[in-house]
Structures are given as C-alpha cells and as structure tokens.
Design brief:
CATH class of the largest domain in chain A: Alpha Beta
Strand order of the largest sheet of chain A: 2-1-5-3-4
Number of strands of chain A: 5
Strand content of chain A: 15-25%
Chains: A alpha+beta, B alpha+beta, C alpha+beta
GO molecular function, one term (chain A): 2 iron, 2 sulfur cluster binding
Organism (chain A): Desulforamulus ferrireducens
Structural class of chain A: alpha+beta
Keywords (chain A): 2Fe-2S, Iron, Iron-sulfur, Metal-binding
Protein name (chain A): (2Fe-2S)-binding protein
Strand order of the largest sheet of chain C: 3-5-1-12-9-10-11
CATH superfamily of the largest domain in chain C: Aldehyde oxidase/xanthine dehydrogenase, a/b hammerhead
Radius of gyration of chain C: 27 Å
Oligomer: heterotrimer
Helix content of chain A: 25-40%
InterPro entries (chain A): 2Fe-2S-bd, 2Fe-2S-bd_dom_sf, 2Fe-2S_ferredoxin-like_sf, 2Fe-2S_ferredoxin-type, Beta-grasp_dom_sf, Diverse_Oxidoreductases
Distance between the termini of chain A: 43 Å
Helix content of chain C: 25-40%
Shape of chain C: globular
Largest sheet of chain C: 7 strands, mixed
Radius of gyration of chain A: 15 Å
Number of helices of chain A: 5
Number of domains of chain C: 3
CATH superfamily of the largest domain in chain A: Beta-grasp domain
Structural class of chain C: alpha+beta
CATH class of the largest domain in chain C: Alpha Beta
Number of helices of chain C: 18
C-alpha cells in the first residue's frame, strides 16, 4: 500500500506492506541510524519522533504514519552533534549503538520539559537502555548540555 | 512473526465493528506493543486512529477517556494529575519508558484485561465504566468478570468525585513488570482495596474493603483489613515471585496504601 | 605527558553517536541472502529425519543445509589462542541437538520473510532424550550430553565424557587440611552465582561474501577476528589463507563476541551458494541461543588465626558449561587464578572442582570470566569471617591483602609489580563514610540502611599466552597509520592506543590514523578480551612507536649526513646542531623520493605476568524490612588500574562495569523451565538495570605504576564488574542480618531470610 508521510521535513510517498514496521521501512530507505535492540518494545534504540513525540519505530506499523511527520536523527543532525560533542567529552557514547535512539529522546525531552530535575531526566530516559556506560556519564552530559543550552 | 494481510482505517465505529466481526482473524490494533511477541496471523488490521478517540475530556460528572489515548497522555494530563491524588499518572508512569507510553493505548490495555496491568489496578479503585461499541456501557468490574463477544472498546468513564486514592507497586527492577500492585481508595468512608499482578488480574478485595469501611481505622483495624485482603484473594507464582511471597507482601502494600490515602487531602 | 592521562574524546565518537552507518549491518553488500536458523525445540534429542523438500520449493529459498550437508570436523566457537583449551565438541550442525535452540538447519533465502516461511515448512522428526538440566547432579545423570567418539581435547583437561564432566581441576599449595586444623576461626559457606546474559545492545551478526579472488570475506561484530579466521578454516575445512575477517564498529561485546556465535553459518552459505549472506540474530536468539556467564556453585572455607591472619583458603567449584564447552576449563581456572593470590598471609591454599555439561544454552566468556563468580564467593566468605573474628571487614582486608613487592602462594613465584589496594580501601572508606555508617542506621521502623564492601583483583592479558603486534607506518605526508588487530568494542581502545602512540611519537592525535581490525591488514592480535588491550596491545604499540622513532632518527641522520647519536627529534623536526629536517620532509624524501624506504615501526608484546588491577567496592543500601526490597543508594569504587591512560574512558568503564555488576547482584538471572526452555528470553523477562535502578555511583582512582605496562598502565575492563555482588550482599546482611548466598538478591530471597530469623 502507498502512504504519504513527511520524513525529516521531506514529503515522501512510501510503498509499505501492511505488516511492515516503521523501523524496517526507515532502514530500507537508507535511514541507517535506526537500530533494533529488543523486539519487545522496551530498549529505546529505535526511537524516532512521530509528530514530535519520541516513539518506538519498531512497534509502529508503517502504514500508521500516513500523513505524519517522522524525524530521525538524520533530520536533526546539527542538534544531535551539539549534544554528541558533550556526550563524547564525557566518554559516554561508548559503543554508540544505542546513541541515536538515546539522543532523540534527550532532544525530545529538551523540547518537552523546562529545566528538568535530575529525577525528571532519569524518568524521561528510563526507556533507553544502555549496557556500556552505566548511565551516569550520560546524565552528566545531559546536565552540562541543558545547563549550557 | 505476526502477519497482516490488509489494513483498514475506518471512518466510523460501525464500519470498524462490521469488519472486525466479518472474519475471525480480523483484529483491532492498539499500541501494538505486544504484537511482535506472538505469531498472530491477522486478516484485516483495524486501526481506529481516524475516529478521534485520543482524548481526555473533563466533564461535570465524569472524566471521559478515549480508547486510543496513550499512557503518556494519562501520565501528563493536568486533570488526571489533579484528580484522585494523581493515582492514574502514578500507576502508568513506571511502565518502561516515554516512547513506550507514547504508543500503548488505554483501550487495548483495558480490553485485553492483562494480569500485570498497573492501569487496571488503578482504574478498579476508581468508579470506572467502560463502553463497548455493541455491548454498551457497563462498570469496569462487570466488564472484567464477564466475557463478551468480540467488540470494540471505545471509551472509559471515571466518575468525577472526591475519591482519595493511592497506588503502590512492588517491582524488582524499576522498569520490570510488577510483582504486586495495590490501589486503595476511599469515598465517604467507603473504602476500596484492589490488588493486581497476583499475577492474576486485578481484583477488588471485597471483604477487606468492607471491613475497613466498617472500622474505626485504628492501626489494628488497618492491619486486619490488610491481612484480610491477602486471605480472600488468590495468588500465583511466576518468575518474579512465588504465590507465598505475593500473599505475604500483599498486606504490606495494602497497609501502605491505606496510610497514604489517610494522609491525602 | 601530552596525551597519556588526558580524557580526550574517542576518535570515532561523533560518527557513532549520531547514527552513521558504521556497524556490521550497515556495511552489507547489495542484496545478501538472509540466513535464518531452524532451532531445536527439545533440550536433548536426536534428529531422525528432516524433510526440507517443501521449504526448498518455496520461491526465493536459495539453500537449506542440515547436518547431512556440513563438514564433519569438530571445533570450538571459543575465541582463544591455539591450542584452545576448550574442547572441540561441536559440528556446524549435528544430528544430536543438545539444548533448546541448538541449530538444526540453516536456511538462506532472498529475504527474511521467505526464510521464515521456509522455516515453518521444514519437518523434523526427533527422538527425544531425557535432558540433563540440573548441573549439581549432571555427573551422575544417565544421559550423556556428549556421547560422540570424535570429540577432541587439545590439552588435557581431565574430561570424563560418560559422566558429563568437561574438565576437572585440582590445585593445592601447602597442606590445606593441616592448616585448617591449626586455625582459631574457620568459616564455611556455599554460594551460587547465576548465569548472566551479556545483553550488549547490538545483537550477534555477520555478513559474508567472496572477493575478487574468490576468497571468503566475513565482516562480523566480533572481538576476535583472528580467532574467527582460524575457527572458520577448521570448521569449513578450507585454508585460513582463503579467509579474511573484518571487524567494523561493534555495538558492545562484554565477552559474548569472544565466541563465534554466527560467522560460520553465513560463511557456509556463501561457500555453498557463492552469494553474499547476512545473519542477524534477533534478541530472543541472542538471549537463548548464544552464550551466558557460567553458573556456578562455589564452596569456600577460610581459616584464620587469633590475630585475624587468613592462613588457609579452600575453594571448591562446580561450573555449568551447558551444552558445549566454550571457555569451560579456562573460566574455571581463572576463578582460582584471580582469587587465591589476593590474601597472601595464607600458608595453604587449594582450588579444585569440576565443570559439567548440561542440556542448556552453552556458557561462555563474560566480563570477569570466573573471577566475578569467585569474588562473590570469596569476598562473601571474608565478610563472614570478619564477623566471626569481631573485626571490621575493612581492617581484615588491610591486614591480609597482598602488597606490591610481595608474592603469594598461588602467584607462581612472581612478585606483584604494583598495587594501591590498601589506599583504595582507605579512600573508599572515607568516600562512603564507613566509620559513621558501618554497619547500619535505622531510618524508620521499616527501613534500614547499611554499608558493605568487597575487594577484587583481575589480570591484564593472559600471561605467557597473549601476544599482540602493532605497526605504525610513517606516511608520505608525515602522518602516521597505526595498524591494530585489537577490537574496540566501544571501550575506546582505538583512542587510548592512539594516545600512547602520540605520546611516544610526540605528535598530535589527529595525525594518527587508526586502523583496526582486518585480518588481511592488521598485525596479529588475539582480540580484545581478558583485559588485554590496554596492557598487551598497548605495550606493543609503545614498542612499535619507539621502533619507529629510532628509525626516523636513523633516517634523519642519514639524510642530514650526521651521526645518529647527535640527532634529536621533537615530533616535528629532526635536529643536529644547525642542521634541521622536518618530519614532513623526511617522509617525503623517504616514501616518495630517494630514500626508497617507507619507515614502519613494529612492536610485538606478550607478558610473563598478568598484572592485576584492583578495586575496593563499597555499597550503601536501604532495605525494606517488610518486603525485602533492596534499594542501592550509593556505590563507591576506588580503582587501581596503574596509570590511567584516559580518565574519562576509564571512569565510564568503571561505571558501566559496576552497573553490570549491580545487575548480577540484584536483577539478572537466566532462568529455565522444567523442560529446559529459557524463560528469560527478552528484555521484558531478563532485566538489566535501568536508569532508576542504580543509585549513585562514585568512582575514584588510586594510580599505581605497573613496571611491565605501557606508561605504567594495567587493565580495567573486567575487574570493575566483580565487587558489586559481594558488597551489596554484605550491605544487605549488615542491614537486616540476612545472608543471601544465591544470586541475584531478589526481594523474595531477602524476605524469606527475614522470615527465618
């Protein structure tokens, strides 16, 4: 089936199967930042924004984004790099495999929450698993990023 | 691996209902969080997103919540944060993460009657009704206790009253399924104690609720009601905890729930 | 020093963090066949018949392979230097399946959907056997997991196949029983450590194709490209010279990718079809069909004299390796190697026990590699001993642990080159405010807070075995290429190795191109495991850099026409009195011009010792007396990893390792049902710590100087996972008097303990 959607501010017509997941549809179209980590909707690696909200692309059926705006990290590269620089200064990207989904959630949080407390930051990001860093370096980076932004 | 042959985004509920019942393999889509866990073969997948069911509406007598409303909306909605001491946001906010709660819907969760559901536990402590497209409106308790022909859950309604409520859960890892959930509420000295994730579905501990309502709420009364809740309900085992353990901690959470309600304004 | 000791960002940080296509699945040749594996539904069975005819007829199915179609050479998936101590006990596909998830058939199709549909069409008849599921009784079980006669052990590991015993081990120094008889205080306890999943975020995956000369190229998310090449050569019965293994960026490893989980399946499909093939395990397969940490039962006996000197130490282990013996003997040996030397006032020590086969998913390498299991048992026992001696557990350690310059009964007659463990303990005590908080503080009628502690050691590389090489090339424009075979799996090892090279070459980091790893190009390196990269590969890099500096000076002297001894080199300019020559000019003259000599520095390093890094870990917990729920409030880790090469990356290694250790302590547990089906097969059922689970973690370094290491460095990768489990268990005991001896410390176990009191 054909759907129209806007991906990273570009209107696109996509041919998708009824049971195709948005994550697969995006990867197949070259958005290789989309990673799958769990198959059970609980790791946050595949996070993209749908109409600005952080959402699991691995759980969203592609046809359901008809008429919506999807944003991947490829679409917010500059913002992502600004944060990634702070993250890298902490050494907290480590393997980097979960970073795109994590960064998309951080950037969404920045838009959604005004001056979040540490607890609010942790709560907002609980759905983003990471096995390398132990999370604390990420938290330090977020605080620096928000503080300086 | 699940498969879907066709999709439909119906313009009316009636159309959705007709298609749903046209074939046994036709299914209404919720948030789809559990779709990938199984190997469901869906004929027509019915997506209700064009039916404007994603809302929380505060009315004079009740709060109306559309079936496609996400957990994230429950968590952040100002009305729900105010009412019943914010018991609904409290119940749903520990679940996985923001991007998950932006997907999971109220309707699919309630309709599926999941045993582990935090939401059902909290909703049962409130005066909740559900509406099925064909089956009509009924109390949540009635809905949970009976089985209905395939239908579409359209809305839930919560009586807007002065009910005070609290929510307790015990989890090992914070983002795990709960080992036990408890919601306690009180309205005009009538108490209600709900225990979920037993791991069976949430249920009202009626005797304990009754006993507490009759009591003077002394420390002893509260302890007895809490113990009674554990006595009257059944508990099972899964990898998160044994039946014995659940039964043993049930009074603890119930007692804490009661104490918290007593401190609520 | 200009680069060593600086927290520079990783050289690949921006690109990997912002989602650029640099991982295995991102660099796939066009239209690869998709490889899927049909897996056994039974824990133990023989395949009587496989009918693939219906599946093969499906359009888009390119090949289906069963045990009838694969080479019959037994091999091991363990990534270890040859000769591997792990037994050669598997075929690519066998007619006997030994756990739920064992491979039955390989399916290659043009896309995933077709491959999965084909899988459903394969009909397999099994003769189902009684599985061996309980590792404590495996040795007497009538079923024999490995009855085959062609199993090969490269080294004598005292295998008893008919008793499901993979390996037996006995090591005693002094006479343990005699020493126990003399001890004033003896404690004994049996501990259980669970299987743990690696849970790296990138699941196992590999891509293979034939190159322009017909050689097999395998791109894989692996920690061990050179071992994979050797493994593939053996299993596929082709010369290693016909195989090239490339490692792109890796999405985490933790030892999981020290085992060749998937490469052979894609490679075989490519060899059979001539076509590119890709295999990506899903998360469920990653949980259920790869490897985990070895679950163990560990009995510890400790004896001390009246003054609190530990005189006798006896550890008996039983390890569950599951269906295959990957890393079975070595993980078991490491448990003893990394625990016995720690307390060196001992007069007799013993380590003995067995590793057994069961019909469960194989165990394998996982960060800590036996030391983690051993540390939980030993440190828990030491804490118990402290109580019995009425001694502060920190004082007991300070009195008994090995110091630099000393040896230990089980330290092979070597002298410990470096240790600040005493300072680590003192500093950790201050940071956690031990004097105020030990043992407990009542917070409310239900809640109590308490502190606990543990110490640990690991190694740095494998003494006498690990040998790594590095090369540094001076390029035509005066830049360098650092060629490595080690495998940065996210730790930042490419960066810290470049820092070391930059330090010696006195150049800036951006003038060093790092290349790793590709078996066609890289110098040999066993790969990144056994905490080897900073220490072993690091030393090879330092040697290579020094070699190159000497060559640059020699060449400079030649070009300047002066004696070598009179030439100085500051990284930019070669100088002899008034005469100067820039490096850039030298490069130009040698590589392009009349010098006719491209300068390459070589370094190869292997060590006779494996210098241990140390950690003192301190936990503060709050325990809910009514539910048994343990909340970790604070964790302090003070680390001696020698010289810290990159403080930021080292700190993240510590924090990440601590959190993985917290997972082991409180949340993670690989569980099976009564038929051998794994229940914890997703992140919903197997809980790694999330952000809310970890409390505060504070890290400090007490640097020592390791004389055998690069710039005095030791390792850090593994040691950091070891202390949380015993320290948290200790804190829980100090809080509520419940000794949890079986990990993980769940609320229910603490509650049960409270009920028994």
């Amino acid at each position: 089936m054909q759907i129209e959607a806007t991906i990273n501010n570009q209107k696109m017509t996509l041919e998708v199967a009824p049971d195709e997941l948005l994550s697969d549809a995006l990867r197949a179209r070259g958005f290789l930042s989309i990673r799958q980590g769990c198959d059970t909707s609980c790791c946050g690696l595949c996070t993209v924004w749908i109409d600005g909200k952080p959402t699991l692309s691995c759980t969203t059926l592609a046809f359901r984004v008809k008429g919506k705006h999807i944003t991947t990290i490829e679409g917010v590269r500059q913002q992502a790099e600004e944060f990634a620089q702070v993250l890298a200064a902490e050494g907290a990207e480590q393997c980097g495999f979960c970073s795109p989904g994590f960064i998309m959630t951080v950037l969404a949080m920045k838009q959604e929450l005004k001056n979040p407390t540490e607890q609010e930051i942790i709560h907002y990001l609980t759905g983003n698993l990471c096995r390398c860093t132990g999370y604390l370096g990420q938290l330090r980076a977020i605080k620096k990023y928000l503080g300086g932004a | 691996m699940f498969t879907i042959e066709r999709v439909l985004q119906p313009a009316t509920l009636e159309e959705a209902y007709q298609v749903l019942n046209a074939h046994v393999s036709n299914t209404v889509l919720g948030g789809c969080a559990f779709l990938r866990l199984g190997s469901k073969k869906i004929g027509t997948a019915i997506d209700l997103s064009k039916l404007n069911l994603d809302y929380v509406l505060e009315k004079a007598e009740e709060i109306e919540i559309g079936a496609m409303t996400t957990f994230r909306t429950l968590e952040t909605n100002p009305t729900l944060r105010e009412c019943f001491n914010g018991v609904l946001p409290k119940a749903v906010s520990p679940i996985i993460g923001v991007q998950f709660r932006n997907i999971v819907t109220v309707g699919a969760t309630v309709y599926s009657k999941y045993g582990f559901s935090d939401l059902l536990t909290a909703l049962l402590a409130l005066d909740t009704e559900v509406e099925l497209h064909k089956g009509g409106r009924m109390t949540l308790i009635e809905f949970l206790n009976k089985s209905y022909p395939k239908d579409i859950l359209t809305r839930i309604f919560i009586q807007k009253n002065k009910r005070r409520a609290s929510y307790q859960s015990l989890r090992n890892s914070s983002s795990d399924y709960p080992i036990l959930t408890v919601a306690v509420s009180e309205l005009d000295q009538k108490w209600r104690i709900v225990v979920g994730a037993r791991p069976l579905r949430a249920q009202i501990a009626t005797k304990a609720s009754e006993a507490l309502s009759q009591s003077k709420l002394s420390a002893e009364d509260i302890g007895q009601a809490a113990a009674l809740a554990a006595e009257e309900l059944s508990f099972g085992s899964n990898i998160r905890g044994s039946a014995e353990y659940r039964k043993a901690i049930c009074p603890v959470l119930v007692k804490r729930g009661i104490m918290e309600v007593l401190q609520c304004k | 020093m200009k680069y060593v000791g600086k927290g520079v960002p990783k050289i690949d940080s921006l690109r990997i963090a912002t989602g650029h296509p640099v991982y295995t699945e991102d660099v796939v040749p066009a239209n690869p066949l998709v490889v899927k594996i049909l897996r056994s539904p039974h824990a133990f069975a023989k395949i009587i018949n496989i009918d693939t005819s219906k599946a093969a007829e499906l359009e888009g199915v390119v090949c289906i392979l069963t045990h009838r179609d694969v080479p019959k050479t037994r091999f091991t998936l363990a990534g270890q230097s040859y000769p591997e101590p792990s037994p050669y006990d598997r075929y690519i596909l066998d007619e006997i399946v030994r756990y739920v998830g064992d491979e039955v058939a390989i399916i290659a199709a043009v896309n995933e959907k077709i491959a999965l549909r084909a899988m459903e069409l394969i009909k397999v008849e099994y003769e189902v056997y009684e599985p061996v599921l309980d590792f404590e009784t495996a040795h007497e079980h009538p079923s024999v997991v490995h009855p085959e006669t062609d199993l090969i052990c490269n080294v004598d590991i005292a295998m008893q196949q008919d008793k499901n015993i993979v390996c037996s081990h006995y090591q005693e120094i002094g006479n343990v029983e005699q020493e126990f008889a003399k001890c004033a205080v003896v404690v004994e306890e049996t501990y259980y450590t669970q299987a743990q999943a690696h849970a790296m975020m990138e699941t196992y995956r590999a891509v293979s194709y034939l190159d322009h000369t017909g050689r097999l190229v395998v791109t894989s998310s692996t920690q061990i490209p050179f071992h994979i090449r050797r493994q593939l050569a053996r299993a596929l019965e082709i010369p290693a010279s016909k195989i090239r293994v490339i490692k792109p960026r890796i999405g985490g490893g933790f030892g999981g990718k020290q085992t060749g989980a998937v490469e052979v399946f894609a490679a075989l499909v490519t060899l059979k079809t001539g076509q590119p093939a890709k295999i990506v395990l899903d998360r469920r397969e990653t949980f259920t069909c790869t490897t985990s940490r070895h679950a163990m039962r560990i009995k510890v006996r400790l004896g001390a004299d009246e003054e609190g000197y530990i005189r006798a130490l006896d550890i008996e282990g039983l390890s569950d390796t599951g269906a295959y013996g990957e890393h079975a003997p070595t993980v078991f040996w490491v448990l003893g190697e990394k625990t016995l030397p720690l307390y060196n006032k001992t007069r007799a020590v013993r380590y003995h026990g067995k590793v057994v086969y069961t019909n469960k998913m194989p165990a394998g390498a996982l960060r800590g590699y036996g030391a983690t299991q051993g540390t939980f048992a030993l440190e828990s026992a030491v804490n118990k001993l402290a109580e019995k001696l009425h001694m502060d557990p920190t004082e007991l350690r300070l009195k008994n642990i090995i110091r630099a310059g000393e040896t230990s009964l089980a330290y092979h007659g070597k002298i410990l080159g470096s240790s600040t463990l005493h300072q680590c303990i003192e500093r950790g005590k201050e940071m956690i405010r031990w004097q105020e908080k030990y043992p407990r503080q009542e917070i409310s009628p239900n809640k109590v807070r308490a502190v606990g502690m543990a110490v640990t050691m690991q190694g740095s590389g494998i003494a006498g075995i690990d040998t790594a090489s590095a090369e540094i090339r001076l390029n035509d424009d005066g830049n360098y290429t650092l060629l490595l075979g080690s495998t940065d799996m996210g730790t930042g090892s490419d960066t810290i190795l470049a820092q070391m090279a930059a330090e010696v070459l006195e150049t800036s980091l951006d003038r060093i191109i790092v290349h790793a790893a590709d078996t066609d190009i890289s110098p040999f390196d066993p790969g990144s495991y056994a905490s080897s990269t900073t220490y072993v590969t690091g030393m090879a890099v330092v040697k290579a850099a020094m070699d190159l500096v000497a060559k640059i000076i020699a060449q400079g002297a030649f070009l300047l026409g002066v004696p070598e001894e009179e030439v100085t080199f500051n990284g930019e300019v070669l100088q002899c009195g008034e005469k100067t020559l820039t490096l850039q000019k030298l490069a130009e003259l040698t590589v392009l011009g009349t010098g006719k000599l491209q300068l390459v520095g070589h370094g190869t390093f292997g060590s006779d010792v494996s210098p241990p890094p140390f950690v003192a870990g301190f936990a503060e917990v709050e325990v809910d007396r009514e539910t048994g729920k343990v909340e970790l409030l604070d964790y302090v880790a003070v680390v001696d990893c020698g010289t810290v090469i990159n403080p930021n990356l080292a700190r993240i290694q510590v924090e990440g390792g601590i959190v993985q250790g917290i997972g082991l302590a409180l949340y993670e547990d690989v569980k099976y049902d009564a038929k051998g089906n794994m229940l914890t097969n997703s992140f919903m059922q197997y809980k790694i710590p999330c952000r809310k689970d970890i409390g505060n973690i504070r890290v400090a370094f007490e640097e020592s100087y390791e004389p055998t290491g690069p710039f005095g460095a030791k390792s850090i990768g593994e040691v950091v996972i070891n202390t949380p489990a015993p320290a948290i268990a200790h804190a829980v005991y100090n809080a509520v008097g419940v000794r949890v001896t079986k990990l993980p410390i769940t609320p229910e176990k603490v509650f049960q303990g409270l009920q028994k009191k």
